[in-house]
Write a structure and sequence with these properties.
The chain contains 40 helices and 36 strands. GO terms for molecular function: ATP binding; ATP hydrolysis activity; DNA binding; RNA helicase activity.
Length: about 1050
């Protein structure tokens, strides 16, 4: 083989003995980046290499006979390949091109060979897409089409072939949209009525997210082909337009075709795309097309006859509310979500669920808002969601209820003492208050204080933080937010405008400025920034370079002090960018006038200090200038949130963050986690690679200096040296805590960290020559120099396993594990207790050398272990949002719960392995396990099988189609007719169970990742074999957060 000449640059070369020799020869001159191939990618990488070597050798051979002999020599070396797999030597090599049942001839092959890939550009040497598509149709057994719009002129090009598909009984599925009114109703009606096609339409005219134009032609022989490109179904695109389309093949590009299938199926199952029946839906389609083409807006939010379903982000909020009420018994809850994300719809869906759970009449409802238009819109929303046009009464200026059962009232009307006195404290079962950040006002306080005997209380707000510093979360909700819509979720669902975030080096060193847990000294920053003309010039230059037009810009600039804001205002005005400073000292009338001038375009920038956190509503803001450092996620998100509202003619929010050399304790990870939703470990790689996985339309761009600063800072936070970590623990301990001990939850809450900051993948840590267990109690004792932590050798070994419990997230284990560790003695009943066995096997995966009872005896004597686990559970109780439910099929007596998260040892032990049989949970390595004693198949799924960020060869094997349908790939040798395959297919008939467990990746920041139990599953269908591709239907819908990660379409 040819060994590559080593030139500096990128490679993906398999290291052969020859290449290894060359690398060794040049090791003093060249630096090599050698990486181990991920196990999941290995088959793909090796087969690609072998294929290339075989092709090169075949080219070098001269005769057909030599080539056939060479191939057979290779095939003979594959011991599992029977003789039938070798090439026939009786004549020249041939290809089977088709098979048919007489008298029918074999199908006509398409104009491009089935195995080939191609790029069609409508060049003179290329066939037009129309004839190519019609040639594919002649041999297709099933056709799927996705088009952003479909016109009759495009249908005409393939008219006869579409009718022929119907004559042959070939199923056709079509996905399209009503966006921009470009689709023609006549075309869709023809597809449904004349061609028998199934058509699903997205009527969402607010966004432009579906631009796909693609076809896939399924063949029962497995030779599927697909076209992906720029051509919509119109005459110009199909015949003579300057369009580019790529032809993919199941043979040559299987990963691409698999992704197409998975994505199409996910769209098809999505409620966003609704089935189209010309008779029932024709009028609705015409209306949607008309509104889209003329930019009209619908006159009502929703049609009352429709079943209103939550968007994914709304489903997450509803899941969280259910957890607070059912699991924690908390019935006074606050939901925080950005304006425009459908908080009122969530409230209405939540109320509908409460109605469904109530026998008898609907619960009495009081909905409070402070503006008439909000009340009217909210009432419409509730009526639409409930499907009841007569639901509810308004109580505001000019409106007076008669029944007083379901009241939508203005706070001004309902908060007066004489009005409140008419009602008993328990008159209303459900109280919902919109814009709850006003909750500290006297009017709201009076109303809330009066109605105290409610069944459910729900506050809604976009900004829980108030400009006056009063904390509504602490005052009314015990410091707990029930659900908070995360930025990246809102962006991913296209609810907010995308952002372009630029990190720009400002050349200022702030590393010596006083820095505490609350941030930098304001006076210290003020001295460095105010009057710093060099920094100001960089800010002006960056703003004029990056912002497309500063004369139309509507910007907010966040400054460190009043003095700094006035200085930057002067700088911007001198640069020809009309600006004004608005601070807490500015008179309200002047502040209001400044905001109005910015809205009118008379100003291009407002310089702000500690305002605009609440009560500011100007969706047109398109630029944010961050001219002071902050590591507070709350403040950062408040500042960013000022510009994320959608507004006409605003396609993106531009964010300029001016970054200097920071103090060693400054944390970039807090800000970037809020911005991206990624963990600390993945952030480090993302920063190096330019943040490739962000919601569509958003991007983060760091200049070289800032990138180096950020990566270095993230590395120091991720790989925090033990000394720095202990110093951080000490700094965040009060004097009393330094003497008596700091609780794990207190430290994590104060520092905005999670358990991965404490528990590392290693079992032990060493500090000043002393080695101790990977334990919070050990770290806290080291940090606060207390010598009272003295575990025995046996207990240290147990403490080294504590990282095995950081995922525990359901009340059964919270209570059960505490109960086991606090037992007085190990009884035979305790030794058979499933929760005790789950705990036992978590410490000893393959069992204790002296048996279960002896192992449990060790645990009961381990005081430090009991305290450590108690502290982990205390933290997890405060963070968990799981709503667990028992399994069905006779498994309800076992402690495994759907939607809870388990280690392998826990889930196997919880389903009888190690107690009902002699196997040990730690000895099971496969991803499938049949437990005959329970007649249960346990299926373990890892969504991202490769450690690489993006590995097409291993994606689209296991994924969610909908919240209840899951596509799963069996083990590689499983056939449909095998005993295992038959058990999967006929499990309902045979009375056996299938339980599905899913995790996102193999390894996380703490080590091996746990699995989330999706619960019982039912066989729906399968395709192919070795492996089988099975679709399971979940008995219980997936948790909304996990569905977002598991679906094929992100």
């Amino acid at each position: 083989m040819n060994v590559p000449k080593l030139q500096p640059g990128l490679y993906e070369s398999l290291v052969t003995t020859g290449l290894e020799r060359v690398l060794q020869e040049h090791e003093n001159r060249l630096e090599s980046d050698l990486r181990t191939i991920d196990e999941a990618d290995l088959p793909h990488v090796l087969s690609r290499y072998v294929a290339q070597q075989v092709e090169d050798q075949l080219k070098a051979l001269n005769t057909t006979e030599q080539r056939v002999e060479f191939v057979n020599t290779i095939l003979a070396g594959i011991r599992t390949l029977p003789e039938e797999g070798q090439l026939s030597t009786g004549h020249k090599p041939r290809q089977l091109m088709g098979v048919a049942r007489p008298p029918l001839p074999p199908p006509t092959p398409p104009s491009i060979p089935l195995s080939d890939v191609a790029l069609l550009t409508n060049a003179s040497s290329d066939p037009s897409l129309g004839p190519v598509i019609t040639s594919e149709m002649q041999s297709a057994d099933r056709v799927d089409i996705i088009m952003s719009f479909i016109k009759w002129s495009g249908i005409r090009v393939i008219h006869d072939q579409l009718l022929d598909l119907r004559r042959r009984g070939v199923p056709v599925r079509v996905l399209t949209t009503s966006y921009m009114g470009a689709t023609e109703k006549k075309a869709l009606d023809f597809l449904v009525k004349n061609c028998g096609a199934e058509v699903h339409i997205s009527y969402d005219n607010k966004t432009t997210r579906l631009h796909a134009k693609a076809w896939i032609f399924h063949r029962n022989t497995g030779y599927d082909t697909a076209y992906i490109g720029s051509s919509n179904l119109s005459h110009a695109a199909m015949v003579d337009g300057l369009e580019w389309n790529v032809r993919a093949s199941r043979v040559q590009t299987p990963e691409l075709v698999e992704k197409f299938e998975a994505t199409f199926e996910s769209y098809w199952q999505s409620p966003t795309f609704e089935p189209y029946d010309p008779e029932a839906d024709g009028e609705r389609l015409e209306k949607a097309l008309n509104e889209s083409s003329t930019n009209k807006t619908p006159t009502s939010l929703l049609a009352s006859s429709l079943d209103v379903r939550p968007y994914p982000h709304q489903a997450i909020i509803l899941d969280d509310l259910q957890h607070e009420r059912q699991v924690l018994d908390i019935h006074k809850n606050l939901v925080v979500a950005a304006t425009g994300t459908g908080k009122t719809v969530v409230a209405a869906l939540d109320y509908r669920r409460l109605c469904q759970d109530t026998d008898g009449p609907r619960p009495r409802l009081l909905f409070i808002a402070h503006r008439q238009e909000i009340l009217e819109q909210s009432l419409r929303t509730f009526r639409d969601v409930l499907g009841d046009g007569s639901f509810g009464e308004l109580f505001s200026s000019g409106y007076q209820p008669t029944a007083w059962d379901h009241v939508f009232a203005s706070i001004q009307s309902f908060s007066k003492e004489e009005q409140l006195s008419r009602f008993a404290p328990g008159h209303f079962d459900v109280i919902i208050i919109d814009e709850f950040h006003h909750g500290m006002a006297d009017s709201y306080s009076r109303l809330i204080s009066h109605f105290t005997e409610y069944r459910e209380f729900l506050g809604l707000t976009a900004t829980p933080e108030r400009a006056d510093g009063q904390n509504i979360v602490a005052h009314y909700f015990g410091g707990r937010i029930a659900s908070e819509l995360r930025l990246w979720t809102a962006l991913d669902n296209d609810l907010l405008v995308p952002f372009h975030y630029f990190g720009i080096a400002d050349g200022v060193d702030v590393s010596d400025v006083q820095f505490t847990a609350s941030g930098y000294s304001v006076s210290g920053l003020n001295k460095l920034y105010t009057g710093n003309d060099a920094r100001a010039r960089k800010i002006i230059e960056a703003t004029t370079d990056i912002v497309s037009n500063t004369s139309t810009m509507k910007a907010l600039g966040f400054c460190v002090s009043v003095e700094h804001a006035e200085y930057m205002t002067r700088v911007f005005n001198e640069a020809g960018i009309p600006s004004e400073a608005v601070t807490g000292q500015t008179h309200p009338s002047i502040r209001t006038e400044a905001i109005e001038k910015l809205a009118r375009g008379e100003l291009n920038c407002l310089m702000a200090v500690d305002i605009f956190n609440e009560g500011f509503d100007l969706p047109a803001i398109d630029t944010i200038l961050m001219m002071r450092p902050t590591q507070s996620a709350t403040i950062f998100m408040q500042q960013l949130g000022r510009g994320l509202r959608r507004s006409p003619n605003k396609s993106v929010l531009t964010v300029l963050d001016f970054v200097g050399h920071q103090h060693k304790n400054f944390r970039f990870d807090i800000k970037l986690r809020a911005l991206t939703g990624q963990g600390r470990k993945s952030l480090q790689q993302a920063a190096k690679k330019g943040f490739p996985f962000l919601p569509a339309g958003s991007q983060i761009v760091l200049d070289s200096v800032v990138q180096e600063e950020v990566v270095s800072n993230l590395k120091s936070q991720l790989d925090m040296k033990i000394g720095a970590f202990l110093a951080d623990v000490h700094e965040n301990s009060s004097e009393i805590e330094r003497q008596q001990g700091l609780r794990l939850k207190e430290y994590l809450d104060r520092t905005d960290r999670d358990l991965s900051a404490v528990y590392k993948a290693s079992a032990k840590r060493t500090y000043r020559g002393v080695t101790g267990p990977n334990s919070w109690q050990q770290y806290e004792a080291w940090a606060n120099t207390r010598g009272s932590f003295r575990p025995s050798v046996a207990e240290q070994l147990l403490l080294e396993r504590m990282r095995s419990f950081v995922h525990v997230d359901d009340p059964d284990r919270f209570r059960g594990y505490r109960r086991v560790l606090n037992a007085d003695a190990v009884t035979p009943e305790l030794a058979r207790d499933p929760l005790a066995l789950m705990l036992y096997y978590s410490f000893w995966p393959s069992g204790h050398s002296e048996g279960i009872e002896a192992g449990l005896e060790h645990l009961l004597r381990a005081d430090y272990v009991r305290d450590e686990l108690d502290q982990i559970i205390e933290f997890q109780e405060s963070r968990s949002r799981v709503v667990p439910q028992p399994l069905s099929g006779g498994l309800d007596t076992h402690p495994i719960r759907s939607h809870a998260t388990y280690s392998r040892e826990e889930l196997f032990a919880g389903l009888g392995v190690g107690s009902l049989n002699s196997e040990k949970p730690g000895s099971i390595r496969e991803g499938v396990k049949w437990v005959p004693e329970l007649k249960t198949d346990i299926l373990l799924v890892t969504l991202n099988k490769s450690a690489a960020d993006y590995s097409p060869s291993t994606m689209y094997r296991d994924y969610a189609l909908t919240e209840t349908l899951f596509h799963w790939e069996s083990q590689s040798l499983t056939r449909a007719e095998s005993p295992t395959g038959q058990r999967y297919i006929n499990h309902e008939r045979d009375g056996s169970n299938v339980v599905l467990f899913v995790r996102e990746s193999k390894v996380g920041e703490i080590g091996t990742e746990p699995y989330t139990c999706l619960g019982n599953a039912r066989y729906v269908s399968h395709e192919s074999e070795k492996p089988m591709q099975i679709v399971w239907e979940l008995e219980r819908p997936m948790p909304a957060r996990l569905f977002e990660a598991a679906k094929a379409v992100q």
